[in-house]
């Protein structure tokens, strides 16, 4: 855990003399903390023995982490005092030693290579920019300019990305795996865009968005299971039911403010999950529902080799050769269309009175209430609409998986969707796409890492927030400018 | 009647645990206005440290129960507070003046990190432990039996609460803490080291959560890396129920939730107890939005 500290108000002076004792003391303290952190949990491992729990000591890992923290902290401290170049060489040397020389333990090698590498990067950065440390405000301004450029470039990037997404299944690259990842990404993009309406536009912190996703998924699964309704009938129904549940939850709790509201939505998400688990006569309980029917081609044809009585087969209808990929491609386009519908809706509604009212509420509730905006109705609308989109995404999820269980709708899913919205920069549609690629795409690409994936995911969330607290692409241009005048130098009102 | 008393005592001991965790939430919320989502994980760490300490003592041949319990308690509080301190230092302090959602996301990230950290280090399987403090105290001619562990939990919590109330109300540290809670800037101008007080708040919260973690280990005898989430959510519910920012409120909220859970499991069925808890939370927030003991908030324009 060697991170550069951004202690607020740390004096930024190019010290003439290097404060060795101070740096050593600082590094020593960090190492002591690391020792306390690692002794019980890293140094002693519980192991299952036939006779009960046993314990095993791993002193070498404790020593390795303490050393890593000590030298890491020392290195960072010295970089801060203008000794970047020597630190760079030493760190590179350490990394080289780790790579080249056979070492007794794998842990030590990892420590040398990873620690040396990170410090070397930091030092190289300091050497090239001739400054020890960017202050938070400087960095924020810099990133804000980048974000503004990216947002202005979205005009050109978005159509390209859209065409790319449309053409993807036609390229020879498109195999099953790639399309599956594409579908997964698009599902989260859709959920992110849906939640963005509540969090980004209306400024309500919703920690239970997955509840509406679950309502949508179970609506379709149960309607198909009990009444044999088809996907195309159920999709609007699922959206309606989710919107209805949004109103049901929203009505009593929307007058709560801020974090109280957040915790109630969290509670609601948990209630929905517990109902799904416990009402097993109806929902199948923890075992979930399997055999959820796949969607047909708009009710005209099926995607199987031998369709049911009275239905045409897709490949025969279009005179193609049968391929199991057809269904996947169809699913891909389906979720693409759904996601784009959400995006289009958001882009348009921001220019309508409803969207304007949401943004006004987000910026200042009392001021907008005194201007005659009905707070409860506006928030309820945001909540219900976002819930509806969540419901659409949910029923798509159910039909794609063919199997759903309460396992898929835990709090962590809500947290991931919220993370996508906040990391991308609240209210930014492009930010949601970028954050989804980071949050869902990267871990998907590193599937082999298995256990360490979620570890890195959690750490990544922290690091991105530390690095850019307002989100990656948080930049807002003023919606209206006085006399069409020049744009102010800084981005829109930062909260 | 006997059944009622039995459930009452179970509920009180469970409520004591929720209350201990809730104090950490309520203090942190009071002083920096954020939901410390990783607090449930801190409690989980406390539980694991207690387990590991016990196993290590066993490996060293120390099996005298009172000594083992004291060492477990001390080790768990010490090491867990270091985790509380570190989490604040790494994930929250740099975000002191950021938009409201940034520390929350950082906290959620930290919570995910700590959960997986524990899973990787100690394994995903649940850890069973034989009862360390077996035996029951029977009262009312044997009709009601109270296990020593539950009794110890209630007594220890009461003692901690008394000590903690004195700490907050009488000592200079407590005065500084309350001053920061009211106005950080002003407290800073008057010579209070605000960063240090905030760190100490996290340390105190973590130490109390560690006690809760150890007691849960002793009562239920089985823990896993996932226990922090639900306990965290419920304890936050307790803090909100009692009125965020109020220490007696946190304890009261914890006890109320513990009692509801225990009576609901005893008389209705254990499957729906969480629904009962959350429904109660919604009801309280609708009819009394500042919680049972909270001060009404004044909206500034």
UniProtKB/TrEMBL annotation, chain A:
CC annotations in GO: plasma membrane
Localization: Cell membrane
Q: How does the UniProt record describe the way this protein sits in the membrane?
A: Multi-pass membrane protein
- Keywords in alphabetical order, please: Cell membrane, Membrane, Transmembrane, Transmembrane helix
What is the protein's major site of localization?
Answer: membrane
Task: Extract one GO molecular function annotation from the record.
Answer: branched-chain amino acid transmembrane transporter activity
For this UniProt entry, which segments traverse the membrane?
27-47, 68-101, 107-125, 146-169, 181-203, 210-229, 235-254, 261-280, 328-347, 380-399, 411-440, 452-469
**Taxonomic superkingdom:** Bacteria
* Annotated Pfam families: BPD_transp_2, DUF3382
> Domain High-affinity branched-chain amino acid transport system permease LivHM N-terminal, which positions?
23-82
Q: PANTHER family, per this entry?
A: HIGH-AFFINITY BRANCHED-CHAIN AMINO ACID TRANSPORT SYSTEM PERMEASE (PTHR30482), HIGH-AFFINITY BRANCHED-CHAIN AMINO ACID TRANSPORT SYSTEM PERMEASE PROTEIN LIVM (PTHR30482:SF20)
Report what the protein is called. High-affinity branched-chain amino acid ABC transporter permease LivM
Q: Name its species.
A: Azospirillum cavernae
Automatic annotation (TrEMBL), chain B:
Per its UniProt record, what Pfam families does this chain match?
A: BPD_transp_2
Signal peptide, first to last residue: none
Coiled-coil annotated spans = none
Example of a GO cellular component annotation carried by this entry: plasma membrane
Could you tell me the superkingdom of the organism this chain comes from?
Answer: Bacteria
What keywords tag this UniProt record?
Amino-acid transport, Cell inner membrane, Cell membrane, Membrane, Transmembrane, Transmembrane helix, Transport
| Topological relation to the membrane, as annotated | Multi-pass membrane protein
GO molecular function term, any single one:
L-leucine transmembrane transporter activity
Task: Quote the subcellular location field of this record.
Answer: Cell membrane
Q: Which PANTHER family match?
A: BRANCHED-CHAIN AMINO ACID TRANSPORT SYSTEM PERMEASE PROTEIN LIVH, HIGH-AFFINITY BRANCHED-CHAIN AMINO ACID TRANSPORT SYSTEM PERMEASE PROTEIN LIVH
* Similarity comment text for this entry: Belongs to the binding-protein-dependent transport system permease family. LivHM subfamily.
Q: What protein name is recorded for this chain?
A: Branched-chain amino acid ABC transporter permease LivH
Organism, scientific name: Azospirillum cavernae
């Amino acid at each position: 855990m060697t991170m550069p500290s951004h202690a607020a108000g740390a004096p930024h002076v190019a010290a003439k003399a290097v404060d060795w004792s101070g740096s050593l003391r600082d590094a020593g303290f960090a190492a002591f903390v690391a020792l306390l952190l690692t002794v019980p949990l890293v140094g002693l491992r519980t192991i299952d023995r036939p006779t009960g729990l046993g314990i095993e000591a791993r002193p070498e890992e404790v020593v390795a982490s303490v050393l890593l923290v000590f030298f890491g902290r020392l290195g960072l401290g010295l970089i801060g005092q203008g000794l970047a170049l020597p630190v760079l060489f030493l760190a590179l040397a350490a990394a080289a030693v780790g790579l080249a020389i056979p070492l007794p333990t794998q842990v030590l090698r990892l420590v040398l290579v990873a620690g040396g590498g990170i410090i070397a990067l930091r030092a190289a950065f300091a050497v090239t920019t001739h400054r020890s440390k960017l202050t938070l405000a400087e960095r924020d301004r810099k990133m804000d300019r980048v974000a503004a450029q990216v947002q202005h470039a979205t005009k050109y990037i978005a159509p390209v990305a859209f065409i790319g997404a449309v053409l993807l299944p036609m390229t020879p690259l498109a195999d099953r795996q790639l399309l599956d990842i594409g579908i997964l990404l698009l599902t989260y993009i859709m959920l992110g865009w849906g939640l963005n309406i509540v969090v980004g536009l209306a400024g309500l912190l919703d920690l239970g968005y997955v509840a509406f996703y679950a309502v949508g998924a179970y609506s379709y699964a149960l309607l198909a299971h009990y009444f044999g309704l088809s996907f195309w009938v159920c999709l609007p129904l699922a959206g309606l039911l989710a919107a209805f549940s949004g109103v049901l939850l929203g009505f009593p709790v929307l007058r709560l403010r801020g974090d109280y509201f957040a915790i109630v939505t969290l509670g609601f998400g948990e209630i929905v999950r517990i109902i799904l688990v416990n009402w097993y006569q109806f929902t199948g309980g923890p075992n979930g529902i399997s055999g959820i029917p796949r969607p047909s081609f708009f009710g005209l044809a099926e995607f199987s080799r031998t369709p049911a009585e009275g239905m045409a087969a897709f490949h025969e209808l279009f005179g193609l050769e049968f391929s199991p990929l057809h269904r996947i491609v169809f699913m891909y386009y389906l979720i693409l269309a759904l996601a784009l519908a959400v995006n289009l809706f958001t882009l348009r509604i921001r220019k309508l009175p409803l969207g304007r009212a949401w943004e006004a509420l987000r910026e200042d509730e009392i001021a907008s209430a005194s201007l005659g905006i009905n707070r409860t109705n506006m928030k309820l609308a945001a909540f219900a609409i976002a819930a509806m989109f969540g419901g659409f995404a949910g029923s798509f999820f159910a039909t794609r998986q063919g199997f759903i269980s309460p396992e898929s709708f835990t709090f962590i899913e809500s947290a991931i969707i919220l993370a996508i919205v906040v990391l991308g920069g609240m209210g930014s549609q492009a930010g949601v796409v970028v954050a989804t690629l980071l949050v869902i795409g990267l871990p998907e690409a590193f599937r082999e890492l298995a256990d360490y994936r979620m570890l890195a995911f959690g750490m990544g969330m922290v690091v991105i927030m530390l690095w850019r607290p307002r989100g990656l692409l948080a930049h807002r241009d003023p919606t209206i400018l006085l006399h069409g005048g020049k744009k102010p130098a800084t981005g829109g009102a930062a909260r | 009647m006997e059944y009622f008393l039995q459930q009452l005592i179970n509920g009180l001991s469970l409520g004591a645990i929720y209350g201990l965790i809730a104090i950490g939430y309520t203090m942190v919320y009071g002083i920096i206005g954020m939901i410390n989502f990783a607090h449930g994980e801190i409690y989980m760490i406390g539980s694991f440290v207690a387990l590991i300490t016990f196993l290590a003592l066993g490996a060293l041949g120390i099996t005298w129960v009172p000594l083992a319990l004291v060492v477990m308690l001390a080790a768990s509080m010490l090491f867990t507070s270091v985790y509380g301190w570190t989490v604040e230092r790494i994930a929250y302090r740099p975000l002191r003046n950021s938009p409201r959602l940034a520390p929350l996301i950082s906290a959620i990230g930290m919570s995910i990190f700590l959960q997986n950290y524990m899973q990787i280090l100690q394994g995903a399987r649940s850890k069973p432990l034989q009862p360390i403090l077996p035996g029951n105290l029977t009262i009312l001619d044997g009709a009601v039996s109270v296990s020593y562990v539950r009794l110890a939990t209630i007594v220890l919590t009461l003692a901690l609460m008394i000590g903690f109330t004195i700490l907050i109300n009488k000592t200079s540290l407590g005065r500084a803490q309350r001053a920061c809670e009211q106005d950080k800037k002003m407290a800073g101008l008057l010579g209070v080291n605000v960063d240090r007080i905030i760190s100490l708040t996290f340390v105190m919260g973590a130490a109390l959560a560690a006690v809760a973690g150890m007691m849960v280990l002793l009562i239920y005898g089985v823990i896993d890396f996932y226990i922090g989430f639900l306990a965290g959510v419920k304890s936050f519910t307790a803090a909100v129920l009692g009125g965020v920012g109020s220490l007696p409120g946190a304890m009261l909220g914890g006890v109320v939730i513990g009692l509801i859970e225990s009576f609901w499991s005893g008389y209705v069925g254990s499957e729906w107890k969480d629904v009962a808890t959350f429904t109660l939370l919604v009801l309280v927030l609708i009819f009394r939005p500042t919680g049972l003991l909270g001060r009404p908030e004044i909206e500034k324009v």
